[in-house]
Amino acid sequence: xxxxxxxxxxxxxxxxxxxxxxxxxxxxxxxxxxxxxxxxxxxxxxxxxxxxxxxxxxxxxxxxxxxxxxxxxxxxxxxxxxxxxxxxxxxxxxxxxxxxxxxxxxxxxxxxxxxxxxxxxxxxxxxxxxxxxxxxxxxxxxxxxxxxxxxxxxxxxxxxxxxxxxxxxxxxxxxxxxxxxxxxxxxxxxxxxxxxxxxxxxxxxxxxxxxxxxxxxxxxxxxxxxxxxxxxxxxxxxxxxxxxxxxxxxxxxxxxxxxxxxxxxxxxxxxxxxxxxxxxxxxxxxxxxxxxxxxxxxxxxxxxxxxxxxxxxxxxxxxxxxxxxxxxxxxxxxxxxxxxxxxxxxxxxxxxxxxxxxxxxxxxxxxxxxxxxxxxxxxxxxxxxxxxxxxxxxxxxxxxxxxxxxxxxxxxxxxxxxxxxxxxxxxxxxxxxxxxxxxxxxxxxxxxxxxxxxxxxxxxxxxxxxxxxxxxxxxxxxxxxxxxxxxxxxxxxxxxxxxxxxxxxxxxxxxxxxxxxxxxxxxxxxxxxxxxxxxxxxxxxxxxxxxxxxxxxxxxxxxxxxxxxxxxxxxxxxxxxxxxxxxxxxxxxxxxxxxxxxxxxxxxxxxxxxxxxxxxxxxxxxxxxxxxxxxxxxxxxxxxxxxxxxxxxxxxxxxxxxxxxxxxxxxxxxxxxxxxxxxxxxxxxxxxxxxxxxxxxxxxxxxxxxxxxxxxxxxxxxxxxxxxxxxxxxxxxxxxxxxxxxxxxxxxxxxxxxxxxxxxxxxxxxxxxxxxxxxxxxxxxxxxxxxxxxxxxxxxxxxxxxxxxxxxxxxxxxxxxxxxxxxxxxxxxxxxxxxxxxxxxxxxxxxxxxxxxxxxxxxxxxxxxxxxxxxxx
Length: 873
Description:
With 873 residues, the protein is α/β, with parallel strands linked by helices. 46% of the residues lie in helices and 13% in strands.
């Protein structure tokens, strides 16, 4: 069933909200006006997954979501209600937590001889001999030797299967390494059959073998020997007991267990070793999410068979591609996907303000972060930048520019969480330089420093340079040149020619197999650097105005003009008319209505500054030893105002995450107990102080209604601008959520269903009387989706004293959107400002009133704060 795309509705699937629960809201979504249910990843994920991005099996849908039967019921419910289905997919990586990933389990058991050794992005040939042909597993809470000698690591047997255990971790055992243990048990039990099995294991081709015939013989003999062992142990309990005694003896002797562990295809290590020695590509810095080599046709086939089947059968009407920038060849992947199952595809791609999606990609567009920041910027007053910047420097003591903060934090994650990725890239660069006499004297340290700086100076997530092609996109060349120039400026102590050489390689002016690999790896790493250094670190450090600190945003871009917005929308209409338009996702730092309310601060900066000064003076008694720092205190006040009322538990959860993400005073890897305790006390005591919370409530009351108008305005613009609007779960009512897990809490659909029924025939006045319940937003969404626009995008301009305080545009000559912006400066009236309407009569969808000619904005907004006009004649 193909359903015309009008609006998607994103839900987060998990064990508590699986396929059957999603099916229950199908009729509600239809009543709301949605066309497609848009689900988070639904393939088999790691046990207990709360998000689905940790897939362990691509061949089936998730058991915890209800399994195949429940998925069929969901599909039936969607079809019965005329809804389509958009599915989120995760082709870049897989989870290796636990033992559920049979591919990874086989790789650990068989090493290079595993069929799946080339499925994962593992470096089997690192410079350190101790790690060669071995996968480092940084899972130990202590040094390996201490953990081993304490008895934390053990060997266990269950039937014919032997496993290594550490706390809740479990790992397979290479069958060749069992020969000694089995032989000792055979001697003790006097069993020739067990001795034969031991010999068979010992004679298996080694795990480093890659010859196809030898690998097949290893698989065959391993399978047969294991079956023989299983039969023997079942038939002769005495032999099983002898084998268990041998296992116990091995566990009791650290030297014996160490020798056995040394024969494995993995190396258990202290968790901090990941920062330097990890030998596989990850999803950013998450050790349990290993990169897939989806550019390999066999890997693509194995990971996409079910997804392609869902599309071809009509169950899925479209796909979201997660983390496309992590792939070696994004364009090649998207072309292969398009060839296998041409369908509606959007990619999770973060675009900078001046960046555009590659023209060659066969996709409908992105998941909409660029729209989110554009529409949000419309309601930011650029005149407030100077006073808010000055106050931030005075109050928090932060005078560094955002660009400096972002660079510093990128360097931080390059040294720490992404250190092993940098080391692997530096080793490759060292080998390349050895072949060039002008560069062979560069030391490993200098090359590492140069790489870090160049990566930190990259202004976008990544370039799209393909070593097997001759052409280079002009925008990629400009990006590389800008990064090289900035790196040379930032680090005059490093030979400028090194940066020039790096730039030449990235521009493909230097050729060679290793250079091609370097270019590919560099681009994959630059993506992780931007995500971890900026989104997950700098955005929690640079707190000048946190409404700008959003995924895909630039905190130094203070506001978007109507002309900029119109220009961007015309480009969207021309190139990607079905791209997604989002204002909130599962990954956004703040709910859409938090940002909308905070935007009003830019219209009253002096009032805000005065309020913060009063609050800080009042709360000084709750600080201890200068903690928390003023920067975090300022972050807290903005968060409090944007989310008010904020209960203590949510506040504590958020500030802990914000402080750890900032990595300034504490972090996830090295929690500072003293700092975090002081921060918790401060939050608890301030929120328990009725005088302080009363002051906050009084301030919020002054911006509450204007903030709601901004919420309605950005919602209407989203629903009527070029593209496919996306609603994030629950956001059809006011959404004052924070970053995950706060924005992934259960949604009360019973409440929303009842409210939608109650306001079906409500007037604008009746709806606004229930503003505290979120009725105006729900009402607006339903009515706007009944008149979903199409056709060309036509900017309209008001005339009169407040022309800059309104955004208006037409769609296809049949629909006009009109919303106020920066309306606080109007002091309650539009004066003689008018909007010249195109010829004919127009009906306001919200008020049912007719309009024509030069309509006064005071009249247009008299009964409802935004307007949507449809042509009557």
